[in-house]
Amino acid sequence: MSTMFDALQTFMAESASLLEDMEHALLVMESNATDTEAINAIFRAAHTIKGSAGLFGLDEVVGFTHHVETLLDRVRNTEIVLCTAQISLLLECRDHIAELLALVTTETALTPALAQQGLRLITLLTPEAASLQTESSAVPTNPLSQAWKIQVQFGRDLFRNGMEPSSFLNYLDSLGQIIALKTNLEFPPEETLFEAESCYLGVELHFLGQATQQELEAVFEFIRDDCQLQITPLQRIDADANSDITTAVDAKSSGKIESNTKVSESAKTHSIAAGNLIRVHANKLDHLINLVGELVISTAGVNTLAIGSLNDALIEAASNTAHLVEEIRDSAMRLRMVEIGETFSRFKRIVRDLSKELGKEIRLEISGEETELDKSVVEQIGDPLTHLIRNALDHGIERTDIRLAAGKPAIGTLILKAYHESGSIIIEIKDDGAGLNRDRILQKALEKGLISDESRLTDSAIYQLIFEPGFSTADAVSNISGRGVGMDVVKRNIQALRGQISIFSETGIGTTFRIRLPLTLAIIDGFVLGVANAHYVVPLDMVQECVELPHIQQHKSHHSYIELRSEPLPLLNLRRYFNLQGVESRRQNVLVVQCSGRKLGLVVDELKGQMQTVIKPLGHIFEGLRGISGSSIMGSGEVALMLDMPVLMEDAERQASVQIN
Amino acid sequence: MDSPDQTMLVQLDPELTIYQVTERHTILTGLLKRHGELQVDLSTVADIDSAGLQLLLQLAYQAKRDGHTLQFVAPSAAVTKMLTLFNINSEFNPLALQDSL
User: CB of B76 within 8 A of CB of B42?
Assistant: First the structure.
């Protein structure tokens, strides 16, 4: 049944989110073990996972999580305060629960190794082990068993939603004892109205156990909206309590419940408190954005035709439409934006574990978590960032004794920063470690034959050598890094995202990796240039100004610089760069662009103005094409090629230095 | 075969779950209306869920209203488990709160 599968998927997604909360809260507790919010978050996570897992019959998850919950309950009752060792243990338990849930997804059975791990953790979780750390003087509470009357009338669609009433009863029975039960049937008055797949069942039962009312309500959490539930405490179990239940056959002919059932409010608000969020399939979002892209192109076409028609009313109408389309475009793009903070949070755990493993004291500073980027970029940037962080921890930051000897603070600092800058997103990984060893890198590169002549390489060019495949200057190849298979993959991954990575380093002070990624995806505001018969597009936010190429410089074979407000502006002649034929226009223009803090003047024939454009990536055939990062269709139907500004900057620089030499 | 003084005996397929209940309902209701008297052998039912149990309960309920005779015999272990859980007697009538099988 697909609804059952959907329900399971929802459970898995929510459990993953809860486990994340749990990890986050545990890390918070490492610095403050009495943080009530964190304690509640951890308990809530374990408790909810256990409850929901029970409904799907995931006995192993239930069994294991139960022990975690028992310990957490004692923390919640302030019987014990968690120590560092216990927090580490709970982190391990969290991982174990994640592994158990992974078994569900892959539909594999429990492996002996995993079972062994579970047993080991449970042993450590037991009160005997925990009591060694007991601080509070409070007497451990021993809750008495309590009797409850539970009335449930299951909803008509319960079966269709993939739920099975008997599993609820079985689960209740596992929490305590069902000491009496009566089944109620709500068959419709007319036989023809009976549908075998609808659920007309209800139960009334007496339950005896140590569970609290919330715990009992939680049993039915998954079907809250699908049933009528009433849980009331019973003072004593005797004939009085049963007096309202009479005959054996109790099939209700009216189809209505006569007892007063009321939906428990607290359970309802639980799902609302989670926030006004909707889960949407990524495919649907992509489809929508594709359509918006087509709409943009189409509207541009309409606009062009309208302007050509010289019909004022039409021009105005087309312009209004264009504005609306722009707004839709912006909204659609924002749907895909995700805060990078989520990715950053993952690293807290990695840094913690890794620094423990390496025996180094390192703290992580994060800033710019609210910086948004496209969902797909966020997904793909995780791996490269992880590798860079592991590298910084393993090779960058020195051991405590070395740091102290060098007069540095004992605790090393790793800074993870994200921010927007002129149409790009910048992610920085900065450490205050030993810095890159320029000479060692050079030596290794010469050894491996990666370069032949070292004389003309700048420091930054030398650092870039570490991205060459097979390169590693690590003396000790550790478990974590140093095999030389990481950095080249990092660079490739970043380039696949149309980004770049640069390195800044100072010996003894530290190293900074700076990753630049384009923010703009498919639809951007661009500026169109005309050269010969070709059209090119530049992202509008890179455009600074337009100037005419001074007459004296026209038609000169080498004009690589002009003076702009008494500052040199390097030029790049696109006609020459792309080797285009055709007659140069009499007046040439220069579009001044800014990228990565540097300026460049693009020499072109025509400045065609602004255009909203949908950028499509180039096909595989064009992968080696330098200087072009995508293509677009203009309102006129002609193709415009998107310029890869960073590459053009690089080439302009190289061209200039060649000329100087 | 069927004759006025012989009760029709029906054996059920091993599965009586949400997937089969609609079909079974049509068949068994039809048989009951045609013969007026039916004996259903539950020994072969290996897999039964709440929907299956509900069906049997409804057939018993409806038979009574229509004045037909419906008997369930030899419940399998799976069926008995369900009956116990929901506190239903062998006539497929829910028992009162204080009674138990």
Answer: yes
Question: How many Cβ pairs within 8 Å bridge chains A and B?
Answer: 92
Asked whether this complex has an ipTM greater than 0.85, the answer is yes
Q: In this complex, which of B54, B65, B98 lies closest to A199 when CB atoms are compared?
A: B54
B97 contacts A182? CB cut-off 8 A: yes
Verify whether the Cβ–Cβ distance B97 to A196 is below 8 Å.
no
Please tell me which of the candidates A166, A170, A245 has its beta carbon nearest to residue B49: A166
- What are the phi and psi torsion angles at A253 (to 5°)? -85, -15
Cβ neighbourhood burial of A225 (10 Å; 0-12, 13-18, 19+): exposed
A101 sits in the region (left: phi over 0; alpha: psi -120 to 50; else beta) called alpha
State percent of chain A over pLDDT 90: 20
Q: How many CB atoms lie within 10 A of CB A116?
A: 10
* Cα angle: A107, vertex A112, A113; to 5 degrees: 100
Shortest Cα–Cα distance, A142 to chain B (Å): 29
Cβ under 8 Å to B: A residues 242-261 = 242, 245-251
Provide the 10 A C-beta neighbour count for residue A186: 20
DSSP A583: P
Residues A167-198 pLDDT 10s: 999 988 888 888 889 999 999 988 899 999 99
Antiparallel, parallel or unpaired: β A639-643 and B15-16: unpaired
pLDDT tens across A78-108, in order? 888 888 888 989 999 999 999 999 988 888 8
